[in-house]
Amino acid sequence: MASGAQLSVTDQRLTTRHPVDLPMIGEHRRLGDVMLHVTNLSTTGFMVKGEVALQRGERITIRLQHIGRIEAFLVWSDGGRAGFQFERILRNDDFLLMIKSMQSNPKFHRTR
Question: Exposed e or buried b for every residue in 12-40, given b needs 16+ CB within 10 A?
Fold first, then answer.
């Protein structure tokens, strides 16, 4: 039996990414709570900064404002960054509400 994720969402790298500076806790079945530092979000996934103790295809569950709980799969990791793909594409109207609420909150503004 093959291990890893059987992703149903196709690779859509042309999806607009929104830069964020968002600390987040992911839930992993083996590791429990995993601290993440999300640096960008799109309707298909997100990127984190920092090392993650996961293998390609492993799942975590995160909670997003206006979206709720959603599972994501580790697609790649390299040099202190990692990319996750959501189990499903987020509804555009919910995604825009989430981004708008983050932009209005200085806590989520990216520091340079």
Answer: eeeeebbebbbebebeeeeeeebebebbb
